Amino acid sequence: xxxxxxxxxxxxxGGVRTFLLKDLxxxxxxxxxxSIMGPSGSGKSTLLNIIGMLDGFDEGEFLFMHEAVHLLKxxxxxxxxxxxxxxxxxxxxxxxxxTVYENIETPLLYQSVKTSERQxxxxxxxxxxxxxxxxxxxxxxxxxxxxxLVGIARALVSKPKLILADEPTGNLNSKQGEEIMxxxxxxxxxxxVTIIQVTxxxxxxxxxxxxxxxxxxxxxxxx
Length: 223
Prior knowledge:
alpha/beta; Rossmann fold; 4-stranded antiparallel sheet; 7 helices; 10 strands; globular
């Protein structure tokens, strides 16, 4: 599903090149559950953003569903993202002007899902996440944990083939965090959804079938 070959990304400050990722190669099969770990600054979020097509890179090749992402035009990349990927952001990235309901509905609008079907899907996921009472509120009226739940609901609403999660339980209490990880596990095992999560939590990382350890922009080891 995902093939990263010799990926390097750097920033240049004052003529000096600083690598965010260096000569990184990784293959991920459809249906895998991968955890990415490493200290701050090791390149975890950068790697996730590249896989999610939100960020480019300077050297290497990236194949997604047999398509060479680095050679695609922006519009085609955007279509791939909307069709296959659900992204759970550490900073939520909810749209302030939209209600909880409208935020969750947004990915379905991109996919031109019919109104009646859209309403049924959103109602179902709002119910599953137990946020029915919050559906008409705006993000600013929610706690950090509630915003995180809305962000996760939005990532899952279009039934993506690939879920990318950056510290998905970072702002949740332990019970909510466990419920989200169990939900991810169920999606992975029963629906075959591929999941790649960045986490600092050993407990969360253990949900992955493989744990990729990054250090200074390189893969240190894979367990």
